[in-house]
């Protein structure tokens, strides 16, 4: 082949590769599907339901989200039900900002984000910059080096590192901030991150005491929902720290497919870390038969971030339904008491009464 023929061939290959990719509705660069089925009556019914849900959420939110806080005060149970059914995509950012408490913090602290962004205090700039290219590298907003997405992500993470000197910046926080930035501007994302971190701060503090406690509780909940798998993991020496660390310190943002993640985050931002426990337990419970016979290395491979999607039900709604069937509130309180007793050197088992299985009540 001549040089011209080689160049033409390379150009053709590049065009075919580009045609084989597309940007999905969430902004990720993904392979182009072979074909798209025509919408039927079932699909049209879903679309009508979505329009009605959007109308209800617009009414609840009011102007700039001001109505949702009042609605939550007056009708908390109804709001919880609506959140669990799913927040409409066009209103997700505003709803997250309000439900997390970020909007209230932003309104109470005008000008603080701008001041933090210009603060001369030394921030872990090198660590943040190093992780920018590792955060959703296939998303169109974050693909460009030092592009608008990476600049926004850097500004949020740097401001938080200055704002919360006890935590500073820890790897994994970038995924939390990145998800928020896909639905709100940098200042809103910052204050939403601050609100979220009020419940997660101990996950990131030196020594990660919150993470250790979460893994302790998760290990003790697992036999109550998936006893065969828990026993297998115990025999093989597969501890939650080997597969669930990023579940907790990124609330699944590191490893879960985006359609599933958004539904999990609707509830996580409204109800807190309890949803992370529920989703992790539901995932292992539904995969128990598949995983319970695997040896150590195969278990870790099956539970790795790159293969987590294989354990999920195709529908995000099914994942949410399975997770919400698990009642863990009471057991988490009891296990927190056990964990604190362990830290004091008294040993586990004295802080809870037991017998309240995660799959039964709590």
Strand content: under 5%
Taking strands numbered 1, 2, ... along the chain, how are they ordered across the largest sheet? 1-2
**Low-confidence runs:** 5-11, 348-357
Instruction: Tell me the major beta sheet.
Output: 2 strands, antiparallel
Helix content: 55-70%
Helices and strands, in order, run as HEEHHHHHHHHHHHHHHHHHHH
Structural class: mainly alpha
Rg, nearest Å: 22 Å
How many helices in DSSP terms? 20
Average residue-wise pLDDT: 87
The dominant shape is globular
- SS elements, strand count: 2
The N- to C-terminal Cα distance equals 72 Å
General description of the model:
The chain is mainly alpha-helical and 362 residues long. It is 62% helix and 2% strand. It has a two-stranded antiparallel ribbon. Strand 1 (21-23) and strand 2 form a beta hairpin. Helix 3 packs across helix 4, helix 10 packs antiparallel against helix 11 (186-204) and helix 12 (209-225) packs across helix 13. The radius of gyration is 22 Å and the shape is globular. The termini are far apart. Residues 5-11 and 348-357 have low confidence and may be disordered.
